[in-house]
Amino acid sequence: MSTDHRWISTPLTADLLRGALELERTERGVLPHRLPAGARAQYDDGQLALAESQPSGVRLVFRTRATAVELDTLPTKRVYAGAPPRPDGVYDLLVDGRLAGQAGAAGGNTLTIDMVAGTAEHRPGPTATVRFAGLGGGDKHVEIWLPHNETTELIALRTDAPVEPVPVDDGRRVWLHHGSSISQGSDAGSPTATWPAVAAALGGVELVNLGLSGSALLDPFTARAMRDTSADLISVKIGINLVNADLMRLRAFAPAVHGFLDTLRDGHPTTPLLVVSPLHCPIHEDTPGPCAFDTESLATGRLRFRATGDPAERAQGKLTLRVIREELARVVERRAADDPHLHVLDGQALYGAADYAELPLPDELHPDAAAHRRIGERFAALAFAPDGPFTPRPAA
Known about the structure:
This protein is of the alpha+beta class and 396 residues long. The chain is 26% helix and 28% strand. The protein has 12 helices and 21 strands. The termini are far apart.
């Protein structure tokens, strides 16, 4: 902690945070969760626990005249055995809606994952301080977006002027989105550069991001969490995790999609609801899962994925991305006859074969920073277009 300011400490309470569905009180501070405790209790899965505790889209929001801000955090950093070191998570500072600074947090806990052995080792570490200075003395709207890929326990917030919460009802619509690691922001450059964050900024909406790495699996508890979350717009991106986890066959897929959408409609009967099919991903277009780490690439220090299924198994109902796109289009077409607020978007309109040729997936599964921006811009252009599914309609 610096000593060159007369710091004011502000309690880290829910009225300062956006994008989290729950705050857990810890011994040191608070841990934002993107799934509530009831949902988390229904399946004890390490991948899901890691993903939902990584605060993609979660940000501190307040008004202040402060010229400097300090945030003490306890990050948990991932290290993959045999792979190049991952960069520290990034904290984005927005002042009156504009990116005004970026910082990382050194230290913190370490989670070492051996993908070949299937083991993980957790080592505790010290807290870190993220500092932004030179903000100017006028009254301003400040947002600190937390790392989208790094579990972040919040310990303390200090400023050199008082802080006031910003009312949630600021006139902007709330967009609730659920998807896979791509929606969470895997390989994006920073938390405001994930494709949902880019699209939300362009669309002028308030984002609640339930992109859950490896965990967009049509889980009923996720559907119930979304059902119970206030939202003006909803989207669900379905497909890639079902294929790379080899989770279900075609016979189970369509009924599971119907059930997920039924649950959403229980809480949001007329909310615009957009179903997004998978982006283009060559390894799984016509080859089923499961997806596996490419051990030969790992041996050279490069992280890559490969599909291990047999294309011939599609005849027995194994899922591929092409099969999922076709089935999602049929499901939405059937339901839309009775649900005029339900829409479908082919994910290849966001990232298709031509995009892969220009901006290939570095690990064969996740888009890079430039592709995230392109996907976000295209989603905004399609969803918020004058005739798009997220454009307000005149009252009847």
